[in-house]
Records
---
Amino acid sequence: MHSLRQLSRAAGPSLRAFSTTPPRPLSKMQLIGRLADTPELTPTSTGRDVIRYALGVSSGPRGEDGNRAVSWFRVASFVEGPQRELLLSLPKGTQMYVEADAKMDTYQTQDGSNRTQLNLLQRSFEALARPQSHADHSTSGAESGTNAAEEPLSGVGAS
């Protein structure tokens, strides 16, 4: 009988050895999208505050109207301190990078039917670009060399 190492050498790089440690559950998402609205702070039933926001993520080719399809994701965050204040201050349209734990929850509605919902719990975020105000479009976008629709944010993020 051949050992796994012997088989691996004979098969070449297509066969690899696997770890003997038990698998760990992993359900994460990475998103780059724009805020649907300003994040909102709401209390939970346990008295802890949660920040909730929706992120619109564009994908696929542009349609006849020039727009891409958008998927909307609801995100919850328990971030504290300065990062909490930063997240709450971000305006609608801010482009963000978000890493979140993903979980599918099933619940029963009032009419007795079952519904499934994707829940995302933010682990980290980075604000990539804020939308630029309409008053600034005529001067700063052209002079600074940035996209006229957004203002870059360098070094802004959370963990």
---
Amino acid sequence: MALLAAACWAFGSLLSAQAATHLGAFAFTRYRMLIAMSLLWLLSFATGSWQSLQLPQVLLLILSGAIGIFIGDTALFAAMNRLGPRRAGVLFATHALFSVLLAYLFLGETLWGMTLVGSGLLVGGVMIAIAFGKRREEQHQWEASPAAMKSGVALALLSALCQAVSTLMLKPLMSEGLDAIAGSAVRMSTGFVLHLLVLLLGLKVARSYLPLTWRVFWLVAVNASLSMVLGMTLILQALKTGDAGLVALFSSVSPVLILPMLWLVYRRRPAWGAWLGALLTVAGTALLL
């Protein structure tokens, strides 16, 4: 389920580039959360799963959504503005390591032997694929900017830590049998409300660059359905039976899974670093399984 979630995020990100450029990162995220929240609540009411929610669970889900979805995503966008998507992506990939460490400290989960070796190969492969997965001529214009390096690194690591903490908070809830769709609905609603508050406060960064068109709307809707509705629900479902650390490791492989998708779409063979990173990631995944 964690690997399927990573595949959903990878495919969803292919559809996000045009919409995010049209709307801006914050507006794109806000619309995406609104659509995902609406779909999740519809599913939750249709199945009656919302009735299983209890107040202590809702409060923890709200806190998890605020940390992981709002603070984490906002910090990641800010890091990308300072470091560029490639370097920010490498640093954000450390969320898998944070998850393993926190799961060991607070949940008593341990990784030894081949599992530990597999974890190292997987995380290393993801980082190599991101860091060396593009040719020089394909680098984004942001990549050359050395400005605000320290604050960018801090924001990217903060984003990774928020992602790990929010995942760790969900593990006990899912082990208790919390419905994944209802849980995702609460977390998504929290992220949307907080993003809406940023807009209502009048911050320029939250405004749409261009008006929403039907084409962009459908791109956002498909992305929300894949990445946030299906992907996040699969992650919560995976946490019911899997270790939090391993779920985080498997779900972190989306940057590698997107490589063959990009190859199919743009007909350009990935760079050598992408091949090496993918090989290490597959080897690590095989050892973990």
---
Amino acid sequence: MSSIPFQTINWDTIEKTEHIGTTGIAYWQTIQLGGLRIRKVTYSKGYLVDHWCQKGHIVHCLEGDFISELDSGEHVQLSKGMTYAVSDDVSSHRSITANGVELLIIDGDFLK
């Protein structure tokens, strides 16, 4: 990965893209810096992602709460101020939220 020069991110200026879930909607604001992706993601009330994910992430909960469901059947609840990290291909997981949530998600080549 190449060096990333010092920079700030003003999320108010980053376009939101809409991603429909099995239920609810996710809004992504994405910055791509080479092999590093940084996203501010908001899940609507009643959101259930439409797929099982095997990609690695560092996920920090900024507001609200959500459940990360693992394919093992385990449910991990995260709320404001909590973080989880997982590498690529280590677990299948998906996100669910009853009340909505705002997350900072970082992923990329370094999680392989």
